[in-house]
Amino acid sequence: MEFLSTFFYEAMIRISSTFYLTGKRVFRDLPENNPPTKGNGFYFRDLKDSFWRAYTIRVPRTRDNGFKSALLPYRKRITEDLDALIRAMLISGMSTRKIAEVLKELYEIKISYANISRISQVGIEEIQKWRSRPLMEEYAVVFLDAMVFPIKRDRVENESIYVAIGITPEGRREILGYYLPGGMEVLITGGKFCRYKEKEVSNRFILLSLMA
After folding, report:
1. Residues 16/62, Cβ–Cβ less than 8 Å
2. In what order do the strands lie in the sheet with 141-152?
3. Fewest Cβ atoms closer than 10 Å to its Cβ: which of 95, 100, 115, 158?
4. For this UniProt entry, which segments traverse the membrane (predicted)?
């Protein structure tokens, strides 16, 4: 979850910075008409959520030093909302209305559905890049973990989202994919990952199927 939290958070802050540079007003705390300026690299900001899990966020810097994202509380090192924000984006199917409601509740800011749509589209594009990334040919260990979320279909029910995690021969942990119950064909990383596992790491595929 830390991976996706950082992923989405950076993507949303980045698009907010783009709006700032182009003079578009996204959040109410930004000036009505931003003066012309340019990007000036990045700086790193450390945050912790309500469970004291640490996140390092890469934040865009502008030459005028004027960009301040409403998604990143000023001088605040503990944020309780990262997981809630990611759940809304991941589980609600990127519903612009739902994400806007969560942002309003968590950040006390008003943001249009059109801007939410632009911001969440960045997240979708980043997810697609992540899904299509090449995987290693060999992992020393592959195992499953699960996170339980309330998912709304006909009614709200708790369901598990399984996380496939691989340990490389060098001991580095890598998230391979996320999927919902119902078979490996619904693996969130897509069918390409399933075919890859069947061909290249078939025993690990069987192990994951049995554990699921």
Report:
1. no
2. 141-152, 156-167, 173-179
3. 158
4. none
Bridge-partner residues for 31, per DSSP?
none
Centroid of chain to Cα 209: 26
How do residues 33-57 score in pLDDT, each as one tens digit?
555 677 888 888 877 655 556 677 7
Q: What torsion, rounded to 10 degrees, do the Cα atoms 212, 91, 126, 74 define?
A: -120
Question: Is the pTM here over 0.85, yes or no?
Answer: no
The H-assigned helical ranges of the chain are 2-21, 82-91, 96-107, 113-131, 191-200, 202-211
Residues 90/146/48/19 CA torsion (nearest 10 deg): -20
What is the pairing mode between strands 54-62 and 141-152?
unpaired
Residue 198: HSE in the Cβ half-sphere, 13 Å Cα cutoff = 7
pLDDT band at 100 (very low <50, low <70, confident <90, very high): low
Q: Is the pLDDT of residue 194 over 50?
A: no
Pairwise CA distance, residues 111 & 205, whole Å: 43
